Amino acid sequence: MQKPILILGACGQIGTELTMELRTKFGPDAVVASDIREGGESLMASGPFELLDATNYEAIEDVVMHYEIDEVYLMAAMLSATAEKFPMRAWNLNMSSLFNVLNLAKERKIDKIFWPSSIAVFGPNTPRENTPQSTVMEPSTVYGISKQSGERWCEYYHHKFGIDVRSVRYPGLISWKTMPGGGTTDYAVEIYHKALENGTYECFLEEDTQLPMMYMDDAIRATLELMQADPGNINVRSSYNLGSMSFTPKEIAQSIQTHIPDFEVHYKPDFRQQIADSWPSSIDDSLARKDWGWEPTYGLDQTTAEMLENLGKK
Ligand code: AKB
User: Are the CB atoms for 94 and 118 separated by under 8 Å?
Assistant: First the structure.
């Protein structure tokens, strides 16, 4: 039987879908959702929820003890674009929440942790195409610095204290259930909303900026597969490269135009262009494939069809 799971940051873009999937798999009561504010109606109605600040160690500890939590998924974070505006708040949230769960594991109060890293750990000196698992990593963003530091701490806690912490470097994630917030890859979600709402979109990245992306169903499946993998097969305790598709704003626009021929995109790059320019354009995820059998299923056109169909119904 699955021991109880706690999701920190359950109301965000990934947290919402992760919570619902874990509840479907293990039963509603096995998964305690938490966030600093309440989430959407279906999430709130689907199982237990606690208002919880991921930077507050004692508050997390109380919930962990109360529900006899075994596994924590730490999804609370400030993403790349917002973190550039509030560097110290981003550093504080992204690092103290991670230390809280690592230290709970060190105190043997929980057994297993999932913590998401990001393609933002790479920087302008990293090889951009087919970026390897281990390479030059000199992130030039606040968010990237926090994620790279987090990776080093995860590996350290694993080697030093035997903590079972697992992680993937998510690319930009595309989903229709919950909006992303504060990221550089958010354009790839906004564009579908605007295509349906008014047939035009003003894109904050240039038309030829290629970034690694993934449909949310693949991202959730990757997360669950990694968490269920035999610990003996997990050879990376910092974070695994995770790939799926790569495309530019122009290519996603063309994919949408096969459904909405009059759809127009105008390009007005802002400060997020510089962030995107420092990130990989594609990812080599061969280690994730080898160690725990990762295989993506969604390409751009299938993602477009699903996004437009589901957002249209909504
Ligand atoms: C962001 O754009 O900040 C995130 C990420 C790639 O981690 N979606």
Answer: no
CB of 20 sitting under 6 A from ligand 1:
no
* Ligand 1 site, residue 244, Cβ cutoff 6 A: no
Place of tokens 């477009």: 304
What is the best residue among 85, 93, 151, 170 to mutate for testing ligand 1's pocket, by most ligand atoms within 8 Å of CB? 170
Cα 100 to its chain centre, rounded Å, is: 19
pLDDT digits (tens, 9 = 90+) for 78-118: 999 999 999 999 999 999 999 999 999 999 999 999 999 99
Q: How far is the CA of 186 from the centre of ligand 1 (A)?
A: 8
Question: In the prediction, which pLDDT does 1 show?
Answer: 80
Known active-site residue 143: yes
Is residue 278 lining ligand 1, measured as CB closer than 6 Å? no
The alpha carbon torsion through 29, 32, 37, 38 (nearest 10 deg) reads -20
Q: How far is CA 108 from the centre of its chain?
A: 26
Residue 2: predicted pLDDT: 83
**For the whole prediction, is pTM greater than 0.85?**
yes
Catalytic residue among 67, 73, 143, 170: 143
Q: CA dihedral in degrees (146, 147, 152, 155; nearest 10)?
A: 140
Share of the chain above pLDDT 90, in %: 98
Phi/psi for 209 (5° steps) reads: -85, 105
Question: Whose CA is closest to 192, among 285, 265, 95?
Answer: 265
Residue 79 Cβ contacting ligand 1 at under 6 Å = yes
Mean pLDDT of 238-265: 98
Say if residue 58's pLDDT is above 90: yes
By the 8 A CB rule, do 248 and 273 touch? no
What separation in Å is there between the alpha carbon of 80 and the centre of ligand 1?
Answer: 6
